[in-house]
Structures
1.
Amino acid sequence: MLLAQISDLHLDGTERATERARRTMAYLRRLPIDALLVTGDIADTGSPAEYEEAAALFDLPFPVLHCPGNHDARPAYRKGLLNEAASDAPVNSAHRVGDALILMIDASIPGEDPGFLAPETLSWLDEQLAAADGPALLAFHQPPVKVGHPIPDGSTLQNAADLDRILDNHPHVAAILTGHAHTAAATTYHGRPLIVSPAVTWTLRLPFEGEGLADLDADPAVAFHLLDGDQLITHFRIVR
Ligand SMILES: [Fe+2]
Ligand SMILES: [Fe+2]
């Protein structure tokens, strides 16, 4: 199974954001991808026009599974991307791809940057995972760990202990996939692979790389995940 992951498009109506997103979709469109996962910060301000653009970009020959980030706004997200009535409830969705269960999880707190798994999201996660026995992937926006830069490290997932309990209760969770940090990164979390997707919009400069938060010249990048049983192998590619 071939999954692709992108994150942090930050569509803001500018030609720059549009060009980078279009370039990424043109690159992905020609590949035999089983599903594309988009881990949040799809919009930059959360306006209806930004989701209108996202919906057009996500018109691809494979399923596009997505979840919100701290720059997204649930009501406009629901209307623009899901054709649902505007609502402030978390935007969680479950998907079967092959024998895998992919859970796109809303870890956003409306109006705030850190992540949080709301009580209703945690009970939904428990139910979904209890009902499936194949490998499961959890995808959400804010990493549950620090990545080595004070900006993303100031807005990690706040209730990681609740995530730990979910992972303890459901050993078939094969990996955790996040975004938010704008840097391709890999570690383990609670015994599972934790992959942080690169961003489409700009790349985080780590403190040892010098001054300035954002490398605006770095090309967009994507992660490809091969899931073999419960083993995840990730390859990163730059989109030129
Ligand atoms: Fe972002
Ligand atoms: Fe973010």
Note: The longest strand covers residues 221-228.
2.
Amino acid sequence: MLNRSWCTPSLLGLTFAALEREFLEIGLTKLDAKRVFPWIHMKCASSFDVMTDLPHKIRSILEEKFSLERPKCCNLQKSSDGTQKALLEFPDGHQIETVFIPDEKRNTVCLSAQVGCAMGCKFCNTGRQQFSRNLTASEIMAQVFFWKDLLLESSEQRNLTNLVFMGMGEPMLNAENLFSALELLLGEKTHNFSRSKVTVSTAGIIEEDLLKLAQFGVKLAISLHAPNDAKRNELMPINKKYCIETVLNAAKEYLRLSNTEHITFEYLLLYGVNDSDDDARQLAKLLANIHCKVNLIMFNSWSGSIFMGSPRARADAFLLILLSKGIRTMVRKSRGDDILAACGQLKTSLTNQ
Ligand code: SF4
């Protein structure tokens, strides 16, 4: 479906079948769609002018009816560790943040799926920003185009290698648009990202859509953050709907259907809340029969937060217990926390005052 939130409908998030349908509706041909599609995704054209193999008349029609416009960048911040965070604004005035995380071997983009978030996780700065709306597939794709354009313009010869849907919002509550974007991101004739380098994160929305996601074969990360329902209920309201047992059963089913090697469980270490030795032992017991990896995340504080991060020694003790029980675990390196680009810190400036 075309993106109606843009002044002129954007083509950035249309799958080939959808593009073809739109073209036929306005009297263009399947061949026109075949010619335009690679310009959008392989050559990252940001205007129709550059599509020189198309007759001038067709370019004029496209110009009049559609857009390849990128969102406006209202703020671009660079962290001392090279991480960059962009505040992007769409034509209806809604803003989101997206983050670029360069590393020696890989360049990762963290994508947002919604404006704000309705999940209300207690430890999350984004969760304090009221949910406004889902992003369209074009708006999800626009974040990828934004970083690709920026890398093309820069002198650094870098390509995007990894994508994580861990920005603002809950991707599985915007599944239809997420799936359209994934089709474009994974397609050999479009952006050609490797399935093993694309991760979708969920707070634990266990619906039919999770099984559809498995068919894309992308990696799944589940925000667990607690070793039992009592603690998870306190931290993540969604646990009252989908308890830990339901989440773990879904994780096993995802592994079976997606053919991925493991599920990643994200576990934020909150001092005195979920970081005791006993918590670690309970967590190890829960995950004993699941092919998984645990990412322990050091809490990135934000103004007004009621939580404190665990000291490094506590994190190490927690890590050792999990490792001793045979659970693959690492303490995730925090990136970009000096510009509030780290996990759980994203929040647009409009409501950040
Ligand atoms: S952690 Fe994720 S799902 Fe939870 S409030 Fe923050 S953005 Fe939403």
Note: Residues 232 and 341 are 25 Å apart (CA to CA).
